[in-house]
Design brief:
Blueprint (H helix, E strand, L loop, with lengths): L15 E9 L4 H14 L3 E6 L3 E3 L9 E10 L3 H14 L14 E7 L4 E2 L4 E2 L8 H10 L4 E2 L3 E2 L12 E3 L1
Antiparallel strand pairs: 1-4, 1-5, 2-4, 3-4, 3-10, 6-7, 8-9
Length: 171
């Protein structure tokens, strides 16, 4: 993949533990997930990339085919906005065209958590504003880190019971 965001590795900067949500319901999202993972594993600003199990879930507030979802854990050297721009470049390279909100799409790469930081800009809100309401986010997130806390909302595991009416299945 040739999605490039101009970032240089800076040995004086530390890495931040980040979580990304992957989703897609058009084409072959599982193959696209593999490409996203390969991209981050090769990226000079990312290291220690791990993926949760993959889950299938129905679309939320939309129609269309079921989604495939997972969560990536990685260490990122750079700021949250740089990570967002990298995610958007990957999406674009893999065929994502932004149309209407919640429209079906081949790939979605969302910044869920960026360490314990909170970010609220016109382009990015971290923690992701609906992550604690989505079982397809909480289950894979908790699989990777059962003790993870959502800044301002507390332990992620405390939010899972409120989502158990949402059907997700591991695939």
């Amino acid at each position: 993949m040739s999605a490039e965001v101009s970032l240089q590795l800076n040995p004086t900067l530390s890495h931040t533990l980040c979580y990304l949500g992957l989703g897609g319901n058009l084409g072959h999202p599982m193959a696209l997930f593999d490409e996203v993972i390969d991209y981050f594993r090769a990226h000079s600003c990312a290291k220690a990339v791990r993926e949760s199990l993959r889950f299938e879930s129905a679309p939320v507030d939309a129609t269309g085919p079921n989604y495939v979802n997972s969560v990536l854990e990685l260490m990122w050297q750079g700021n949250a906005e740089q990570l967002l721009h990298t995610c958007m470049a990957i999406e674009s390279q893999l065929g994502r065209v932004r149309t209407t909100r919640n429209a079906p799409r081949p790939i979605d790469v969302d910044v869920l958590l960026f360490g314990q930081e909170t970010v609220n800009t016109s382009q990015l809100t971290v923690p992701h504003p609906r992550m604690h309401l989505r079982r397809f986010v909480l289950e894979p997130l908790l699989q990777l880190n059962p003790e993870i806390e959502i800044p301002g909302l507390g332990p992620a595991r405390n939010h899972l019971p409120g989502t158990l009416d949402q059907i997700v299945k591991a695939i």
